[in-house]
Amino acid sequence: MGALLPIIATGLFAASVSPLWADHLFEGRDLDNGAQIYGESCASCHGAKLEGQPDWRTPRDDGTLPAPPHDASGHTWHHDTALLFNYTKFGGAKTLEARGVTGFQSGMPAFDDALTDDDIYDVLAYIRAQWPTRIQRMQAERSHALE
């Protein structure tokens, strides 16, 4: 566990990704499935190219933030894998509440009724595969520090 394993992406997205897995939860993930689900379930808010919504750091009138980018310019990679999984599965409000965070309004819905755990990990693997190797390593280190 924790060894860096290069995985060769196959299929339609092989040319656009250069995954470096440093987390056993991402080993052997289906990047094509992750890309498809991302396109169907995530891109409408987070952008087709993972670019997020404009002014994503500025709260709206209701206190929620616009959807952040999932590319290297955003903050997704600053979070450990468990948080990203829980945020996706259970939604932002429930996940933050479980971690003792109060006073933060999250607009992230829960996908536990729509996606399987494997689907969620495939989406996270797809997102992670879009990041430069250096950022993949930093996110993996954050995840391993909590194991």
UniProtKB/TrEMBL annotation:
Domain of life: Bacteria
Cofactor(s) annotated in UniProt: heme c
Keywords linked to the UniProt accession: Electron transport, Heme, Iron, Metal-binding, Respiratory chain, Transport
PROSITE patterns in UniProt: CYTC
Pfam family, one: Cytochrom_C
GO molecular function: electron transfer activity; heme binding; iron ion binding
Domain Cytochrome c: 29-131
Official protein name in the record: Cytochrome c6
Organism this protein belongs to: Actibacterium lipolyticum
